[in-house]
Each structure stands twice: as structure tokens, then as C-alpha cells.
């Protein structure tokens, strides 16, 4: 039937020379009725048929024939849609791969230039850029592993952000985290990652002078539909504010990120160390 008309109907297969000797029709309770609508690709190539079979002779009405033809067109639309989605997946995978490589290259270049400079202020700026690039790369990786969903697992995402921060932290500073089981939208995760990165960087830079042992804690909880972020360190805090001047650029970035969450950062220095909290 695939080489014949767009629609083929055989009311009784045993009375049709094309099917009369077919074992599927002659053996036992074989096929006695066949109707098939041709499935044709956009380039005109026949792909197969949408078939209706029965073990009793019958004849379709005009409405039934029209219905089969409509169903055949729907099958082709579904096949075309699957092909388009597969092609889109390939393009997205390629784009994700390029973005990932670009972010990794940018981070490596920033790190390389920072190592070659002696000016401390410039090095600090480059370190900040690298942290932000790494946070973006982490978010992108989580979104990619999530199958294209616009949300990430809060615990896994925070774990990777903290892991990156720990890699760049001096050996005398340890960073830990905890997070309730929850998901974050990508825009929320991006802002959260930036706030955590800036808090940790400020603590590492100012909170533990003379290589004193330090601990930074990050906690994300979900209560009554709202997230609460609490960050703290056990550094010098307000004990010696002359030695601890918060990074004004970092403070500005944290405030901007918090505004994206419709929240305000509460950041203070206490005798026990630095404290940051916000609810969104």
C-alpha cells in the first residue's frame, strides 16, 4: 500500500489479489480487512502507513475514511515535532557546551592574570571577577544537569558554590553549609550565589588576620513558603574594626543581588564575628 494511493482500503483481503495469499490473512483468525493512510515526509518520501485492521470484512464510511486521513496528518505532525525537538536538543547541547567552555576559559584567564600582577588592589578586583564567573558557571552547570528546567536543587547548588569557595580559601579557613530540601528558580539561585560568594570573600579577606583559624557557615532554610539565608563567621567581627573594613564593592553587589530577590541584606559585625541574613 505504501507505493499506491494516499489512502487504500481493502474490504475483504481474501477477495483481493494483493492480499489473498498473505499468511497473515489466510491462517486461522487472519486479517480480513485493511485500510491504510500514507504517511509522507515533507520532502515527499513515503515513510509508512497508518493502518486499521480487522479480522472481519467491512467497509468504511466516508466520515471514517476522512477521520483516518486526519489521524494520518496528525501522526506526521507529531513525527515532525519530535524531529524538531531532537534538533533543538542538539543545538541546546552545543550551546551549553560552548557556554561552559567560555566560562571556564574566562575564569582561567582571570586567574592567570591575577597571578602575574603585584598590585594588590587589582588582584582583589580580578579575584572578585573570578568568583562571579565561577558562580555563573556553577548555576549554568546545575541548570544543564536539570534537563533544561528553570530551577535547581538548593542543596546541590549551595554545595557546589561552597566547594568552589573552599578551593580558593586559605587553608586556615573552613566553609560549611546546610540547606533544606527545596528548589530555587534560576534567577533566585544566581542572586543567592553572588551574595554567599561576596560574604565568604569578605570574611576571608578581613575576618581572620594573621592566619588565625576561621570558620564560615552558610545556612538556607525554608519556612512558610519563604527562604531565609543566614551567613556567619567566627572572625574578629567588631573586636577590631580598624582591621576589618567591609568591601564597599562587595556590599554594593550584595545589595543589588538582594534587590533582585525583593529582599534587603542585614549585614553586621558583632564581637563573635560577621553576620548576614535575608529573607525572600
From TrEMBL:
GO MF term list: ATP binding; protein histidine kinase activity
Key words, A-Z: ATP-binding, Kinase, Nucleotide-binding, Phosphoprotein, Transferase
InterPro entries: HATPase_C_sf, HATPase_dom, Sig_transdc_His_kin_sub2_dim/P
Chemical reaction(s) catalysed: ATP + protein L-histidine = ADP + protein N-phospho-L-histidine
EC number: 2.7.13.3
Domain Histidine kinase/HSP90-like ATPase, chain residue ranges per copy: 180-256
Start and end residues of each Signal transduction histidine kinase subgroup 2 dimerisation and phosphoacceptor domain: 94-167
Name of the featured protein: histidine kinase
Amino acid at each position: 500500500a505504501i507505493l499506491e494511493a494516499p489512502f487504500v482500503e481493502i474490504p475483504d483481503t481474501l477477495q483481493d489479489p494483493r492480499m489473498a495469499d498473505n499468511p497473515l490473512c489466510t491462517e486461522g483468525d487472519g486479517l480480513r480487512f485493511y485500510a491504510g493512510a500514507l504517511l509522507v515526509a515533507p520532502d515527499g518520501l513515503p515513510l509508512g502507513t497508518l493502518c486499521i485492521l480487522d479480522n472481519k470484512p467491512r467497509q468504511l464510511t466516508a466520515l471514517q475514511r476522512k477521520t483516518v486521513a486526519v489521524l494520518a496528518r496528525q501522526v506526521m505532525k507529531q513525527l515532525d515535532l519530535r524531529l524538531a525537538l531532537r534538533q533543538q536538543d542538539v543545538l541546546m547541547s552545543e550551546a551549553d557546551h560552548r557556554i561552559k567552555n567560555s566560562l571556564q576559559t574566562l575564569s582561567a584567564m582571570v586567574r592567570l592574570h591575577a597571578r602575574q600582577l603585584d598590585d594588590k588592589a587589582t588582584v582583589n578586583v580580578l579575584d572578585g571577577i573570578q568568583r562571579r564567573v565561577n558562580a555563573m558557571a556553577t548555576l549554568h552547570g546545575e541548570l544543564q544537569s536539570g534537563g533544561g528546567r528553570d530551577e535547581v536543587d538548593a542543596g546541590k547548588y549551595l554545595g557546589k558554590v561552597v566547594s568552589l569557595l573552599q578551593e580558593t580559601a586559605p587553608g586556615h579557613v573552613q566553609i560549611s553549609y546546610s540547606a533544606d530540601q527545596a528548589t530555587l528558580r534560576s534567577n533566585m539561585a544566581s542572586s543567592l550565589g553572588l551574595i554567599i560568594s561576596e560574604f565568604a570573600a569578605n570574611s576571608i579577606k578581613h575576618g581572620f588576620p594573621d592566619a588565625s583559624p576561621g570558620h564560615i557557615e552558610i545556612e538556607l532554610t525554608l519556612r512558610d513558603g519563604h527562604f531565609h539565608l543566614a551567613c556567619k563567621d567566627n572572625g574578629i567581627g567588631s573586636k577590631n574594626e580598624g582591621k576589618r573594613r567591609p568591601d564597599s564593592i562587595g556590599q554594593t553587589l550584595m545589595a543589588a543581588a538582594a534587590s533582585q530577590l525583593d529582599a534587603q541584606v542585614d549585614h553586621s559585625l558583632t564581637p563573635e564575628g560577621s553576620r548576614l541574613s535575608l529573607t525572600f
